[in-house]
Design a protein that fits this description.
The protein is an alpha/beta fold and 299 residues long. Helices cover 23% and strands 31% of the residues.
């Protein structure tokens, strides 16, 4: 079956034009072309029509296909507010493809990372970067790794502290947030320095370490691909010895595979008992229990 793409098909405005990138350097090779799509919204129909056009013109190499498939899978989870007034740039082997929807205030780029395609989000903030630049709408659809203090609130706190110590820095900052699948950068027009916020995973269990939520956490980590061999050994150790962790106001710190995560019960600022679970070189799990002997009354 043969398909064609026209500007009026399905009510879409899929204008396609190419622009040559001018200039070369001796240290790297610049991609030869950018294919531009002007669209009303980044939705599934837009991407499917674009895929046909890219295949017809020979632009759908393996990297471009992987980037496009990843963009479809990722952006369909976004609310409509994050799919309009945005631009999306995809990285292929020898060219870029850019979608522009409306007047972009959010700039997306899909590029190859160590573990496959990654979506990077950039928000230009103008001449000054201040805490109010961080809008909840920018984080819509994101499930933060930290259930006690969101990455947005952590970023606001870090930025506020930096501005308080150096008020003149507001015009020269960029703020980078990495939280799970989220990679977001707030940037002034001419950034000179970077602030980084990268929360580790903290799961809040309420008063006690509940088995059901523990299994839900394990399931989430398995589905997201974060459950590596060492972390799995730690969870198995925790589940097998579950009765030893049935205390109020405890904090369980798990470390393995270069990652750190916390399971928190009770208060988030003080814990009468702390457990540390970790693995050795053969991914065998061990644990230590540290008891705070100070008197503490649970509220």
């Amino acid at each position: 079956m043969t398909m064609s793409v026209s500007p009026s098909l399905g009510g879409k405005d899929l204008g396609l034009k190419s622009t040559s990138l001018v200039g070369k350097t001796s240290s790297f090779s610049i991609m030869s072309e950018i294919k531009n799509f002007t669209v009303s919204c980044l939705d599934l129909e837009t991407f499917l029509l674009a895929r046909v056009k890219l295949r017809q013109e020979g632009f759908l190499d393996s990297n471009m296909k992987a980037s496009l498939d990843f963009a479809i899978q990722t952006l369909e989870k976004f609310p409509i507010s994050k799919r309009r007034d945005v631009s999306l740039t995809l990285e292929g082997d020898r060219q870029l493809v850019r979608f522009t929807a409306g007047n972009p205030v959010l700039l997306y780029m899909v590029r190859s990372g160590q573990k496959g395609p990654e979506l990077h989000q950039k928000i230009p903030v103008g001449p000054r970067l201040i805490p109010s630049c961080l809008s909840e709408s920018h984080f819509a659809g994101h499930c933060c790794r930290d259930e006690l203090e969101s990455c947005m609130n952590q970023a606001r706190r870090v930025l506020s502290a930096e501005i308080e110590s150096n008020p003149s820095c507001q015009s020269e900052l960029e703020l980078r947030i990495v939280c799970g699948e989220l990679r977001m950068t707030y940037a002034t027009q001419h950034p000179q320095r970077s602030l980084f916020v990268q929360p580790h995973r903290r799961v809040f269990f309420g008063k006690l370490l509940k088995l059901e939520k523990l299994l839900e956490t394990k399931t989430h980590l398995e589905r997201s691909g974060e459950m590596k061999e060492g972390l799995l050994a730690c969870f198995q150790h925790l589940l097998i010895n579950y009765s030893q962790f049935q205390e109020e106001n405890i904090r369980v710190v798990i470390q393995s595979d270069g990652e750190l995560m916390e399971l928190v019960c009770g208060r988030n600022d003080y814990h009468s008992t702390q457990h540390y679970i970790f693995t050795d070189g053969q991914n065998r799990a061990y644990s230590h229990r540290v008891q705070d002997m100070e008197l503490w009354e649970y509220e």
